[in-house]
Amino acid sequence: QVQLVATGGGLVQAGGSLRLSCVVSGRTVSTLRMAWFRQAPGKEREFVGRIRGSGDTYYADSVKGRFTISRDFAKNTMYLEMNILKLEDTAVYSCAAGPDSSAVFNTWGQGTQVTVSS
Hints:
30% of the residues are buried. The chain contains no helices and eleven strands. It has strands at residues 3-7, 10-13, 18-25, 32-39, 46-51, 57-59, 67-72, 77-82, 91-99, 107-108, 112-117. A hairpin with a 4-residue loop joins strand 7 (67-72) and strand 8. It is mostly beta strands.
């Protein structure tokens, strides 16, 4: 059974950086397709980016060039490096995982709050 624990959220000024972590247990990250999603107050959940087992990444246009997804196999952890943060990046960020052969994310971690201030 795969379990995900997301950490690293906090308060940061616009233009700053933050790194979120998603620790995985039950499966190795290299066998999973994983993703980050976010949900701002009053808005629907939004796809941020994903990484496949091969390491291939894909990002939403709104974060492309500013956010980077990576993995640490030794720590069995996925990261979301967020740079040049904007006010509109404020949201609860959640990590998700599913079989690498599927586009369905069937396991979700709890969210971590990211607040960008001016």
